[in-house]
Design goal:
42% strand, mainly beta, 147 residues, 14% helix, 3 helices
């Protein structure tokens, strides 16, 4: 089972996540002769309190994503009042190492939130974490993610 162990930073358990438009969107772009965006690698915060994976506005803009609609979300900063945000379908990949297959979700629905000022561009929610085993070891200040 692919896995990696990393140190927990001051911001929390961060990891690199490779993001691109969904496979469906990439095929549509290719079929219409439009340019295919290059995947980008961003810092993601592993967040078991987030039900949905979120990406920063800068990621949406860099990839030229098209909204699939909007969804009401509640965050710690909104209290009990939901806010409407756009959602998108993306491809997300997390690599454990060069000799191990990545975690791949080719059609992950994500919400757009302005989070870059917090030191990361993605929040890895339970929708993606449901495909993993997460061990958070606060005593050693490390976490392990297996998939």
């Amino acid at each position: 089972m692919p896995h990696f162990t990393q140190t927990i930073s001051n911001e929390g358990p961060l990891l690199d996540v490779n993001i691109n438009a969904s496979i469906e969107r990439l095929r549509a772009l290719q079929d219409s002769g439009q340019p295919i965006p290059n995947a980008i690698t961003v810092k993601g915060l592993v967040d078991t309190g987030a039900s949905t994976t979120c990406i920063d506005t800068s990621v949406v803009e860099a990839l030229g994503l098209e909204t699939k609609g909007d969804v009401a979300v509640i965050t710690p900063s909104t209290g009990d009042q939901p806010i409407d945000v756009d959602y998108y379908d993306i491809t997300a990949m997390i690599f454990a190492g060069m000799d191990q297959p990545p975690l791949l979700n080719a059609t992950l629905l994500v919400a757009e939130l302005p989070i870059q000022n917090q030191g990361f561009q993605a929040i890895i929610g339970r929708d993606l974490l449901s495909e993993c085993v997460l061990i958070y070891n606060g005593a050693t200040e490390q976490y392990t993610l297996s998939f």
